[in-house]
Design goal:
heterodimer; A: 437 residues; alpha/beta; four-stranded parallel sheet; 51% helix; globular; B: 395 residues; 14 helices; 8 strands; 48% helix; 11% strand
Chain lengths: 437, 395
């Protein structure tokens, strides 16, 4: 009789964590502890969105910043979101809509537990930063229905013509002055101090400078960072509850030093399996990652020596590598500009320009689009983006499909197959170019 | 249709409206353009743009709501993944197949991310066409959202003046406001007639008459509505033992005409809906004196319909527009008919359903696409709904 034995998987490598990783883990843990302790400490909680995250303003009112998108990501990474999504669909939410929303709604229905195992507090206010995504409006209307708490709309106009106009800034500043700030004052009981905001904004600039240095280190060959999978960790503090804090400054200082060290040593990026081997393919990636199978997805890249040198998703909570910095000298105007400039608030031609420039500036082999089934903001138009970037750069593009946090839409075999074909295509083009030379 | 209309005035009007509906090359709009010097056509997508400004420029506003079930989408599918709704792909099909080659401009209102991104795609695919993403305020204070919106309207006016080659005067704008006020009043009358006597104004006929307004000059459309209102009074049509429903979710990608007919065949008179909302978006007359842009802006802020794409700042008010629509039209239930993958309709739906539950208004829900061909499941669902209302509502 033939016996089939399955080899045991190799034990996971012990990977030494960098100081920045340790720092970030501490920051996130402390933040969730602070958030879940709010009912006991009496701190008030504001929920808001990553694109248009006015963390500096929220801090002016001593509010604790809760980001439902980040919570959904955490649920995805911890493989809990699948059950949450199903729960939301059971109670009437369509299978067609955003899985961040469904993960959040499902999580609430199943106990509303944070990553530290404690209950999330009910928010005291929903700061509906309506920036770059239609779904945000409905998400917070749904949460408002659930929590019956005050909701403050801050409408960021869309850059339909590819530029920020005086009318847009005036509209946003007026909303901040006459709606957002007075309501936050009332809810928090804290008087707004514009100098306090300026101080936070100054700190933001320091962190932003270091983040950009980190992101742009990927222009080197080999790139010392992965600007997509690794990038998710790098953007955490600045897109989350830490922009404007000393913690964020320290984190990005550590991170920049680590990356510069790797650059000096000619090292590639850190991966969950240790340092990546030889860099064979350099890619620009458009679209959010899948979180439920994040490591599995990442492994498909680094196992092939593929590194992501630039990505659009690492700009979803703010675009800093094109020159924008928060400007403490015009605090409200700068908050408006920040909101207007986030990646998904830019029109399609702007997004194409950004991606095509990344391919050229980072000397990438091509563009990969990870199209997310439940995110129309990113996904609608990506096929045109793909063809246009190919046309402009002469480099091949590839297209894979998955979802944010619904594991039913991640087909590993399918994606791996496409990636392998894509890498083969790049090799063939290189061979062709060599032969022509 | 409800009854044989051979030879009647109604039949003639409905046949004309049907012909306009079927014409995917927009012959009527082309004829209008060819009939005069320097005429221009400005297309717009759902839900709302201020057609008055287009009209004041002497241009024809042309409503584009996708290609429907008669348009085979070949090229359009190359632009979208399978999990995006059909209206953008059929709209692109209309564009790349040359059916919109006479259109001088396209307006893409803020309704959802798909239409929003389509505005950028259109800019790239048709660089010689004037394209504008038309944003509307989600803040309803006169001095905040109002001022922002007045500036947006002024920019649109300025852009159309450039296309026209001369200014659009305030008087021209006021006259256009007056003309569209007339049109909206007539549409309100039409909807009131249907709510009172739905057998006299079947939903499919009303839809065709309404839809004609997207392709005809507004003056001609107003006359068509007057003629239809008069014609429906000519003879009494048979009444069915149907229940009365409000249909909601149909404000962007349109259901096939066969779906609308199927609802009534299955036992549900449609007595109110959110089809083609632009035709009655502003719920009462816009003042035709004074500053026309300011009047249009204030009308948007304070006299406009509620829909998923518009933020409702008051939690208690959320969904009440639907309850009021039910009460006003004497409806007995609500049908949620949402296009597949439609973020606004599908994300909104659970909240509206909770409000209806609290108001003890029964509802059902299904999804469709603009090219849905299989109506049997819808007839069964609507038929069962109608039966359940008749059996258990105590009527």
């Amino acid at each position: 009789m033939t016996t089939i034995t399955t080899p045991k998987p190799a034990p996971a490598k012990e990977v030494e964590k960098d100081a920045s990783m340790v720092k970030q883990k501490e920051m996130m843990a402390a933040h969730y502890d602070r958030l879940t302790a709010a009912p006991q400490t009496g701190e008030k909680v504001a929920s808001t969105f990553v694109p248009g995250n006015l963390n500096e303003l929220i801090m002016c009112f001593d509010l604790v910043n809760n980001l439902p998108e980040v919570n959904a990501i955490q649920s995805g990474l911890r493989r809990q979101s699948g059950a949450y999504v199903l729960e939301a669909e059971k109670i009437g939410h369509s299978e067609d809509v955003c899985t961040y929303v469904k993960s959040d709604i499902g999580m609430m229905a199943k106990g509303n537990l944070a990553p530290n195992g404690k209950r999330f507090p009910d928010p005291d206010v929903l700061l509906l930063s309506y920036t770059g995504c239609f779904t945000f409006m409905k998400w917070f209307e749904l949460l408002r229905e659930q929590y019956k708490c005050e909701t403050i709309m801050l409408h960021t106009p869309y850059m339909g013509d590819g530029k920020i106009t005086k009318n847009m800034i005036e509209y946003m500043v007026k909303q901040l002055k006459e709606e957002v700030i007075p309501k936050l004052e009332r809810i928090s009981g804290v008087k707004f101090d514009i100098d306090r905001l300026r101080e936070y904004l100054k700190k933001s600039v320091t962190a932003e400078d270091d983040l950009v240095r980190v992101l742009q280190s990927a222009k080197a060959q080999p790139s010392p960072i992965d600007a997509y999978f690794g990038g998710i960790y790098y953007i955490g503090p600045i897109f989350g509850a830490f922009r404007g804090t000393d913690d964020a400054i320290e984190y990005y200082k550590f991170l920049r030093a680590e990356v510069e060290q790797r650059l000096a040593e000619g090292k590639g990026p850190v991966t969950p399996d240790g340092d990546m081997g030889k860099e064979k393919y350099r890619l620009v990636v458009e679209g959010p990652p899948n979180y439920t199978n994040f490591r599995q997805f990442w492994k498909m890249f680094y196992d092939e020596g593929a590194v992501v040198v630039a990505s659009s998703y690492t700009k979803v909570g703010g675009v800093y590598d094109l020159g924008f910095r928060h400007d403490p000298s015009k605090p409200l105007e700068t908050l408006a500009e920040y909101c207007l400039g986030v990646y998904t608030n830019r029109n399609l031609p702007m997004r194409i320009d950004m991606l095509a420039n990344y391919v050229k500036d980072y000397e990438a082999d091509g563009l990969l689009i990870n199209s997310i089934k439940s995110c129309n903001s990113f996904s609608a138009g990506q096929l045109l983006i793909m063809r246009e970037v190919e046309k402009r750069t002469g480099k091949p593009a590839a297209f894979v499909e998955s979802d944010l946090v619904d594991p039913r839409y991640f087909s590993a075999a399918n994606i791996k197959n496409r990636l392998e074909s894509y890498f083969q295509m790049i090799e063939q083009k290189r061979a062709g170019a060599r032969a022509a030379a | 249709m409800a009854t044989s209309l051979n030879g009647s005035a109604c039949a003639t009007i409905v046949a004309r409206a049907q012909a306009l509906f079927d014409d995917l090359s927009f012959g009527a709009a082309r004829q209008w353009k060819a009939a005069g010097e320097n005429r221009k056509v400005i297309g717009y997508m759902p839900i709302y743009v201020p057609r008055e400004i287009i009209h004041a420029a002497g241009f024809l506003p042309l409503g584009i709501v996708g290609g429907g079930d008669q348009l085979e989408v070949i090229h359009g599918d190359a632009y979208y993944q399978s999990y995006i709704c059909r209206i953008p792909r059929s709209t692109i099909e209309l564009g790349v197949s040359g059916r919109l080659d006479f259109v001088d401009g396209m307006l893409f209102p803020s309704i959802c991310d798909v239409i929003r991104n389509l505005s950028g795609m259109w800019k790239m695919m048709f660089p010689n066409v004037y394209v504008r993403y038309f944003d509307v305020p989600q803040n309803y204070r006169d001095d905040i959202g109002g001022n922002y919106y007045i500036s947006e309207l002024a920019e649109l006016r300025h852009d159309l003046e450039k296309l026209r080659g001369r200014p659009i005067s305030d008087d021209e704008l006021r006259r256009s406001i007056g003309v569209y006020n007339d049109n909206r009043r007539l549409i309100r009358d039409l909807y009131a007639l249907r709510a009172r006597s739905p057998w006299q104004a079947p939903a499919a006929e009303v839809y065709l008459v309404l839809r004609a307004g997207l392709v005809l000059p507004v003056e001609e459309h107003s006359q068509m509505i007057r003629d239809y209102l008069a014609a429906t009074a000519e003879h009494e049509r048979p009444r069915r033992d149907n229940c009365r429903v409000v249909v909601t979710g149909v404000f962007c990608e349109q259901p096939p005409l066969s779906l609308i007919k199927s609802l009534e065949l299955a036992g549900c008179y449609v007595v109110d809906d959110d089809l083609l909302l632009i035709t009655r978006w502003l719920t009462s007359d816009v003042p035709a004196e004074g500053d026309p842009l300011r009047n249009l802006a204030l009308a948007f802020l304070h006299q406009s319909e509620s829909t998923a794409a518009k933020y409702e700042p008051n939690l208690k008010e959320k969904g009440q527009h639907l309850v009021r629509a039910v009460r006003r039209s004497g409806a007995e239930g609500v049908i949620f008919a949402c296009p597949s993958f439609c973020d606004p309709a599908l994300l909104e739906r659970p909240m509206l359903q909770h409000v209806l539950k609290d108001a003890e208004i029964p509802y059902i829900a299904f999804k469709y696409a603009e090219n849905s061909g299989q109506m049997q499941p819808i007839r069964e669902q609507a038929g069962t709904f109608s039966d359940s209302i008749k059996l258990w509502s105590g009527r």
